[in-house]
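Batch manifest line 339
LIGAND: magnesium ion
JOB: complex structure
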Amino acid sequence: MFIDYARIKVESGKGGDGCISFHREKFIPKGGPDGGDGGPGGNVIAIGNENINTLIDFRYSKLIKAQKGKNGQGNNRTGAKGINRYLHLPLGTIIYDITDGKHEKIDEVTIHDQELILAKGGNGGRGNNRFKSATHQSPRYAKPGGDAQYLELELELKLMADVGLVGFPNAGKSTLISRVSAAHPKIADYKFTTLEPSLGVVRIGDYASFVMADIPGIIEGAHDGRGLGIQFLRHIQRTKILLFMIDINSIDPVKDYKTLKEELHLYDKYLDKKSHIIAISKIDTVSEEYRNEFLVEIQGEFQQQLQEKIIPISSVTGENIKKLKTKLYEVVNKFDLDK
Ligand code: GDP
Ligand code: MG
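JOB STATUS: finished
ARTIFACT:
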C-alpha cells in the first residue's frame, strides 16, 4: 500500500457585518431602524469524488479560502452569503486537524458526493433593525459578522495502484512511467529498501486517471528471495491489473513472458491470473526495415502459444503510447465493474 499525503490550510469566510441604518423617506422625518443582517461567510467543504485517486492536486495549494459574507444594507437588505469552497477529495481520504501542532482525526471521506464541513463560515451579524424594542426604538448598534475559522489539515490517502508494471530490469518500465504520467506522488511508507517503487498518475482526459506503479525488476528466482524482487511482489498483489513489459530485443520474448508469469505464480498462485496487457517495448531500436516483420513474428508466437495479443510501443518516440493508455484504462475499469 502506498500512502499519499498533502498538507493544506483552509479558512472559511468571515460573516458580513450587520448594518446600522434608519428609514428615510420624504415627509417621514424619523423613520425606524432598517439595517439588514450581514450574510453568513462561506464554508470550506470537503466532498468525496470517486473520479479522483490522488492528493496530487493539493500538493502545491497553500491556503484554500471561502468567501466572506457581504455586509447588511439599509432598507433591511440582508448581505449576500459568502460562496463556499469545495475540496474534491478521493474516496478513502482521512482528514486530520494539525492546527497548533496537534494531530487529531476529523473524519474520513468514504462516499461519492459526501460533504463534510471543514471550516464553517462566520455567522452574519444582525442589523440594527433586530435590536429594536418597545423601550428602544432607534438602536444605534448592530453586530459585526462572526469570525472566520482557520485550520491546518493533513490529508492522507492510502493508494492502491491500478496497474503494476512487471518486467526484467532494463525492459523500459521507469521510462514508460515517466513518459505517461502527469504526476509522481511522493511515497511515504518505504522503509525496507532504498529502491522505491515509483507511482505515476496517468491522466485520461480531465477527470479520468489511473495510478501506475513501477515496481523494480523482477529477476528469476525472485519468489524465493533472490534479488530485490520479493519485496516488490508484495506490492503487485495489490494492483488491479498488470502490464508486462518485454524488450523487443529479447532473444525469446515468449519465454521471457512465461518466466515472468512463473515467478509471479510461484510467489502467489493467483497473481498470474490477474488481467493483464503485454507490451513489447523499445520498438524504435529496431530499424523500420525489419520492424514489422519482427513484430508480426512475435505476435504470431504469442498468439499461437498463448492466445495472447501484444502492443508494440516506444517510450522514446511515443509510438502507440496513447493506445496503451486507453487500453489500460479500459481494463482497469472493467476490473472495477467486475468487482
Ligand atoms: P527499467 O529497468 O525497466 O525501469 O528500464 P528503464 O526505463 O530504466 O530503461 C532501461 C534503458 O532502456 C534506459 O537506458 C532507457 O533509456 C532505455 N529505454 C527505455 N525505453 C526505451 C524506448 O522506448 N526506446 C529506446 N530507444 N530506449 C528505451
Ligand atoms: Mg526502473
